[in-house]
TrEMBL record:
Pfam families: adh_short (PF00106)
Protein name as annotated: Uncharacterized protein
Organism from which the protein derives: Colocasia esculenta (Wild taro)
Compositionally biased tracts (Basic and acidic residues): 1-24
Location of region: Disordered: 1-37
Annotated Polar residues bias: 25-34
Length: 152
């Protein structure tokens, strides 16, 4: 019985030692959370439809993780309002608001030109447009085609 407890303690010490080795080699351990591990400070994300719902929440979490967030909003006032709220929650966040109406090709092209003028990479494109018409999908592909090549 005594020998069993001693073996168990030895196994526990070995596990702790392996855990310390892993933690020091990568900086993370098995107890590290995604919030601790994800650093988006070198990333830029475009989030469409970010003035409410899942788009707003996505923009909030990306900003919290230090991702530079570009909000594509149909209404500049609504986009600026969301930006102000997010900056109150996360003062160090980097957030830009650009007008974007995915139902207008002229707006898509203007957004792409405005985004490109920021000289930022496009690492993440989160489109929360729930209109799945072929025309709307085509406009989103044009947005990506006009912004992404310069970002790669």
């Amino acid at each position: 019985m005594m020998l069993e407890r001693e073996r168990e303690r030895e196994r526990e010490r070995e596990r702790e030692e392996r855990e310390r080795e892993r933690e020091t080699s990568s900086g993370f351990s098995s107890s590290t959370t995604a919030e601790e591990a994800i650093d988006g400070s070198a990333l830029t994300a475009v989030v469409t439809e970010a003035t409410s719902g899942i788009g707003r929440e996505t923009a909030r979490v990306l900003a919290l993780r230090r991702v530079h967030v570009v909000i594509g909003a149909r209404d500049a006032y609504s986009g600026s309002s969301v930006s102000d709220q997010l900056l109150k929650e996360t003062p160090e966040a980097k957030i830009d608001v650009l007008e974007l109406d995915l139902s207008s090709m002229a707006s898509v092209r203007r957004f792409a030109a405005d985004f490109n003028s920021l000289h930022l990479p496009l690492n993440i494109l989160m489109s929360f447009s729930f209109n799945t018409s072929p025309t709307r999908q085509h406009e989103e592909h044009i947005l990506l085609a006009q912004v992404a090549p310069r970002s790669i």
